[in-house]
Structures are given as structure tokens and as C-alpha cells.
Specification:
Keywords: 2Fe-2S, Iron, Iron-sulfur, Metal-binding, Oxidoreductase. It comes from Cupriavidus yeoncheonensis. This is 2Fe-2S ferredoxin-type domain-containing protein. The protein is of the alpha+beta class. The protein has helices at residues 24-31, 83-94, 104-117, 123-129, 141-156, 241-248, 251-255, 354-381, 400-420; strands at residues 2-8, 11-18, 50-53, 56-59, 72-74, 168-169, 199-200, 229-237, 261-265, 271-280, 283-296, 301-310, 315-328, 333-345, 398-399. The strands form 3 sheets. Strands 8, 9, 10, 11, 12, 13, 14 and 15 form an 8-stranded mixed sheet that branches. The protein has a 5-stranded mixed sheet with strand order 2-1-5-3-4, with helices on one face. Helix 2 crosses helix 3 (104-117) and helix 8 crosses helix 9 (400-420). Bound molecules: FE2/S2 (inorganic) cluster (2 copies).
């Protein structure tokens, strides 16, 4: 057990006992009875647990309480008298920006940050800035309208600009001990140590910064500095290995087996320029990039090196995919072993948490395998007389937000099954 000193909603807690593994949200809810901080995913994805640490919005479900030693924490309960929050609460009611209200404390904490930080924000800027807060009920229209109306009100009242707006986004809650009397609700947003984040803020509205250009296509992931997420996936198709190998040589067709993928230009045997459309909550990302492939026919292996970026969400990714084709069922089937290593930066990096990504990757792989089987069957039966292959049914975009929710739903169902399943019958 450790002890920490921190200020919560303006009240000092000296020598508060806490286990080193306790997350800030649990400490606030269980030890201080501040249950206005809600927990949804507990993975840093949904934003329900968002609160302010030293005036900066942070995910309290993935921030250790011990990392907040010396900090000033403001929960939704501590923002009753904050002018901006009062205006936001009224606007949320007026614009029907909540239904069940579960997401609302975190939504309001993020909305306050947007209002104070982005006084000229367009609707698109607000949607982007709020994309880290997910709501299952409202459809976001009321939320965006509420934020727009508060920005307009503040502008009309000459309150558009705050002193000392932060210029960086990224993780908070560690590497500082900046408890200050001005750090609670209503205070201007505190500055933070440099070098905490590598993601630049959008700054004032309309000035969202595009990500740095992605690295050269063939840059080795090991050279690029940021840790890679590595995933292994396997699936089997009931086609001989030579047939699968030959199909994998048609890079364009293989690429478009990915859900939401299309080609920006005709692919060659070794180079492809794809676009991948992904929907995440209220934003739609379109990653555009390029990839090169190296194939080893002797061992039936291939490696694809690629990078892509989405300017709308200021996200970029790079990585490599290695595949091995292994004969099965006496040569009648092929097992495809895929190893993916990638790094994601920008606002969509919140979906990089490994457990969520693994579930999403599994579902993407299943969709890819289905499309691959359909294409291989099509290749066997031949193309129509006009020479154009019939399109394989395919989703037009990958709905990562829906996938995240379905992953969470499946996990909750599994939890209930494990708790109560054994008592039935
Ligand atoms: Fe913290 Fe979902 S509960 S981000
Ligand atoms: Fe229900 Fe947002 S109002 S989750």
C-alpha cells in the first residue's frame, strides 16, 4: 500500500492510502464515493471516465492513482460552479444531448476542453475533437449542437479565448507534481511538462495539424522508434497451396479482400496503393497509403511493408505483414499464418490497446478470409464473358466503433455466463 497526496475538487487529501495498481477512477469511486466518474470500457476507449488532471482531460480508467501524487483532480462533481460547465449542462438539456446519461460526465469534461481550447471550432473540428468520447444513445447530433451553441454564446459574450490554452494532447497523470490552488474547476487550463506527448494539438479551430508524412514505404518498423503492436492470425481455406499462392501474387485483388479497402491506382505485382475506410464513432477515417511486397516462392512466404495516413483524423500507421502458406489436409487445404506488426499514431491510436485490437483484428481476418474464399471460388469458375470479374460482396467501410461495442458486449456476456452459467439447470 502507498500513500498519496492530492487535491480532489479543491479538497486536499493528504496521505491517502492506495494500492499501486489502483486506477484513479476506482480510487475516486471506491475510496472517495465520487461516483460521477463513470466506467465504461476500462480500456481508455469510450471516454466515459474522462475528468481533469491539473486542468487537462484524462482517462481515469487507465491512469494509476499513484501517478497523480501531487496533482489536482477535478471530477464532474467538482464542476458545479464552473461557468463553462454550467452553460454546457444547460445546452446538453436544451439540445437533447443525452439519453441514459452514462457517457455524459466524460462527454462534458471533454466538451469543456473543446469550448475553452477551440473558440472558432467548426462542426468538423468539434466532431474530431470529441471523437474520443463514445455515446450509444444520442447519435452525437445533439452533443455537437450543444457544444456549438456554447461556443457561440461565449463568443457573443466576449469569452471566446482562455488564457494559457494547452498546445499538446496526450496522456497525463504522470511525471508531474503540480498541485496548485488554481488547478481545480474553473481555473484556466494548466500547462503540462513537455515531452509527455508526441501528438500535437489541433490548437484553435480550423488549424488541425496534419500528421507528419508517413515514413518511406520500405522503412523497417524497427527503425521507426515507436513500439509496434504485433498480432498473429491464422485461418484455413479449402484450396491447394499453389492456387492460394498464385492468388496472393495478385496484390490488388488480395488488398480488396480487406473490409473497407479499395485501390487508389492499379496495383502491380509488387506495389499497391490502397485506401481503407474505417468508421470510428462519429468520425470516418480514410487511410491512404502505399505498400511493397516481397515474395519467396521456395518457402511460400511473403512480406508486405506499408504506411498510410488519414488527414481527417490526423492519424498515421506503418507496419509490415508477413504471411506463410502451409499445406493441410494432404494438400487439399491451405493454412494462412499471418503476422502483423504495426504502429498507429494520432487520434485513432486510442484503439491500439492490444486486447481491443486483437478482437478487431480477428473479425477483420474472418472477413478477409471469407472474401478470399469467395475470390478463389470465383477464380475456379472463371470470369464472365466480358472479362470483368464479378464483384465480391464486401462492406464499404470497417465500422471499428461498432466492432468495439460488439467486443464489449461479447465480453460482458462472457462475464455473465461465467458468473451465472454454472448455476443453471
Ligand atoms: Fe475509461 Fe472507457 S472507461 S475510456
Ligand atoms: Fe447514453 Fe450517451 S447518453 S451513452
Amino acid at each position: 500500500m502507498k500513500t498519496i497526496n492530492l487535491t480532489v475538487n479543491g479538497r486536499e487529501f493528504a496521505g491517502a492510502p492506495v494500492e499501486p495498481r489502483t486506477q484513479l477512477a476506482d480510487f475516486l469511486r471506491d475510496s472517495l464515493d465520487l461516483t460521477g466518474t463513470h466506467l465504461g470500457c476500462e480500456h481508455g476507449v469510450c471516454g466515459a471516465c474522462t475528468l481533469l488532471i491539473d486542468g487537462v482531460p484524462a482517462r481515469s480508467c487507465i491512469t494509476l492513482a499513484v501517478a497523480c501524487d501531487g496533482a489536482s483532480v477535478t471530477t464532474i462533481e467538482g464542476m458545479d460552479d464552473d461557468d463553462c460547465m454550467r452553460a454546457l449542462r444547460a445546452a446538453f438539456s436544451r439540445e437533447h444531448a443525452l439519453q441514459c446519461g452514462y457517457c455524459t460526465p466524460g462527454m462534458l469534461a471533454s466538451a469543456r476542453d473543446v469550448v475553452l481550447r477551440m473558440p472558432d471550432a467548426s462542426e468538423q473540428d468539434i466532431r474530431f475533437a470529441m471523437s474520443g468520447n463514445l455515446c450509444r444513445c444520442t447519435g452525437y447530433v445533439g452533443i455537437i449542437k450543444a457544444i456549438q451553441s456554447v461556443i457561440a454564446e461565449r463568443k457573443a459574450a466576449g469569452l471566446g479565448v482562455v488564457q494559457n490554452p494547452r498546445t499538446e494532447l496526450g496522456p497525463v497523470g504522470s511525471g508531474h507534481a503540480r498541485c496548485s490552488a488554481a488547478g481545480h474547476a474553473g481555473a484556466s487550463i494548466a500547462s503540462r511538462p513537455q515531452a509527455v506527448s508526441t501528438v500535437k494539438a489541433a490548437g484553435t479551430a480550423g488549424a488541425a495539424q496534419a500528421p507528419a508524412a508517413p515514413p518511406a514505404v520500405r522503412q523497417s518498423p524497427a527503425d521507426a522508434g515507436k513500439p509496434m503492436t504485433t498480432l498473429n492470425q491464422t485461418f484455413t481455406v479449402d484450396f491447394p497451396r499453389d492456387e492460394v499462392w498464385e492468388f496472393f501474387g495478385r496484390l490488388g485483388e488480395v488488398t480488396t479482400c480487406l473490409p473497407g479497402a479499395s485501390l487508389l491506382a492499379p496495383a502491380t505485382e509488387t506495389h499497391v496503393e490502397p485506401k481503407l475506410r474505417i468508421k470510428v464513432g462519429p468520425i470516418v477515417a480514410e487511410f491512404e497509403g502505399a505498400a511493397d511486397v516481397e515474395r519467396d516462392p521456395a518457402n511460400y512466404t511473403g512480406t508486405i511493408f506499408g504506411s498510410a495516413r488519414d488527414t481527417r483524423s490526423s492519424s498515421a500507421t506503418r507496419g509490415e505483414i508477413r504471411y506463410d502458406l502451409v499445406e493441410e489436409k494432404g494438400g487439399g487445404a491451405t493454412r494462412v499464418d499471418v503476422q502483423v506488426g504495426f504502429a498507429l499514431t494520432g487520434s485513432l491510436a486510442q484503439f491500439s490497446r492490444s486486447s481491443i485490437v486483437k478482437d478487431i483484428a480477428k473479425r477483420m481476418t474472418d472477413a478477409f478470409a471469407e472474401n478470399l474464399r469467395a475470390r478463389l471460388s470465383q477464380a475456379r469458375t472463371g470470369t464472365p464473358s466480358d472479362g470483368t470479374p464479378a464483384p465480391v460482396p464486401q462492406v464499404s467501410e470497417l465500422n471499428a466503433g461498432a466492432l468495439v461495442f460488439s467486443v464489449l458486449r461479447d465480453r460482458i456476456a462472457a462475464l455473465f455466463r461465467s458468473l451465472f452459467g454454472g448455476r443453471r439447470g
